[in-house]
Amino acid sequence: MAARGVRPELLDPPAPMRYASGARPGTSAADRAAWSESLGMTALRSLLFNVAFFAWTAVYQLACLPVLLGPPRWTARVGEVWVRVGFAMLAGIVGLRSEVRGRENLPDGPCLVASKHQSAWDTLIFSQLLDAPAYVVKQELTWVPLFGWYLQRLGVVAVDRAGGSKALRRMVADARAAVAAGRSIVIFPEGTRTPPGMRRAYHPGVAALYRELGLPVVPVALNSGLFWGRRAFRKRPGTIVLEFLPPIPPGLPRREFMARLERALEGAADRLAGLAPASPGDEAGRESPGAARA
Q1: Spatial contact of 67 and 27, defined as CB atoms under 8 Å apart
Q2: Is 80 helix (H, G, I), strand (E, B) or coil?
């Protein structure tokens, strides 16, 4: 029986999820041995990356503590360098890179970016693609020693998930302040990391921001969960694809907006995960991979 909320295709997931090499192992002893060696190398590279990344994070955050006394833009630049080095480690050690499509769908001014959320990778990438975006995050993250101090100085939009309507009003007020400073807002409507093919109800926060901010919403689909799953030790080599989809204009009724957002995100995410066929014209609308790598 299929797990609740998981599409049947995920019981026999696409090649990138199953095999680090993208190829199914053969039945011969040699094939099985090669496959075991490949798995072992993936595990070893993942271990090396985890050690290097966490060591880099600890040393860098301690060294940059004086930056917290300066303006928020200094902290934003510190964060950008932290992520850039982390991604270089991910590419060099694990062999995991990224491709970005649809940059032409980003408006010139601030917007509300509503992204699928499959991996910790998703929380890092937007600092490389947008100018000092304000993330909507759970309040508990701002309490984490060191890391939380940087989040607070960055001016994230922290949400008390148990706070009800009062928390929503605070979220909207903080988001308005960020937009007034020329920053885009990044929100993950599912509220938590969700494996490819699984469906979760979208949280009301994205609808509240859409209604109150009056900004276009740019949906973002991705397939990061195929390579770096939720709380997964192992990171698989390959290319994560992130795609900015055509914006949803402001002013739509709530129900119509939510339906359009979910339809766009889920359809594109399934396509990127290999769970749905590509739509006509997809190839023509893609950026050159060489020019779009993050």
Answers
A1: no
A2: helix
Average pLDDT of 257-265? 97
Contacts (Cβ under 8 Å, ≥6 apart) of 96: 90, 227, 228, 235, 236, 237, 238, 239, 240
Structurally, what CATH architecture does the domain formed by 96-292 represent?
A: 3-Layer(aba) Sandwich (3.40)
Q: 114 and 187 in contact (C-beta within 8 Å)?
A: yes
How many angstroms separate the CA atoms of 34 and 269, rounded? 31
273 residue type, one letter? A
Closest CA to 188 of 134, 133, 137: 137
Domain positions in the chain are 96-292
Residue type, 66: P
The amino acid at 72: P
| Confidence tier at 41 by pLDDT (50, 70, 90) | confident
Average pLDDT value over all residues in the chain: 84
| Sheet strands (E) in the chain | 96-101, 112-115, 134-138, 157-159, 185-187, 217-222, 238-244
The residue whose two tokens read 């600092």 is 127
3 state SS of 258? helix
Going by C-alpha positions, the residue among 74, 57, 73 that lies closest to residue 124 is 57
Lookup: tokens for 27:
């039945």
- The CA distances from residue 87 to 19, 169, 287, in Å, are 22, 35, 20
